[in-house]
Amino acid sequence: MPMPRYFLIFTITAKLLVCSSFLSAEILYKWNDKDGITHFGAHPPTEAINIETVEIEDTPGDTEAKSWQTIRQEQQASDKAAQDATSLDQALDAARKDKNALCQQAKQARIDLESRHRVRLQQEDGSYRVLSQEEKEAQIKQAEEAIAEYCG
Predict the structure, then answer these.
(1) Which of 61, 79, 80, 81 is spaced 20 to 30 A from 30 at the CA atom?
(2) Tell me: the pLDDT tens digits for 57-76?
(3) End-to-end CA separation in angstroms for the chain
(4) Sheet strand arrangement including 38-41
(5) CA dist., res. 138 & res. 38, Å (int)
(6) What is the pTM of this model?
């Protein structure tokens, strides 16, 4: 997903630099679209939000180039912040889903342990053995601790 943003930044920057009539303009608009992506242009669309004007110095040479470099850096910082926020939201959602799944697994393990008189445990070699009463109680205690941690 980051690739299209950089391509978009490059495309916008290239178009702005190529349009000489646009470069001679004194006002540049900066706005965000509905997805939170920052754009620059001579005329913002009607559905744009957070519209700002950016004054461009009319002096030739390095000052104009620095202004465009500053604008590019602002857009990259804005895109990075939006990407970081999206990544954080996705990580939090995944953590919530994992926590809910672990909660359900712990509850089911406790139900299985409490409902069966004899509990068989599969060994590493593929064979089964029956848990002793102490081992079964320890497993129930572990399930209850997991329920407290993941469900509470």
Answers:
(1) 61
(2) 555 555 555 677 777 788 88
(3) 35
(4) 38-41, 27-32, 49-55
(5) 56
(6) 0.44
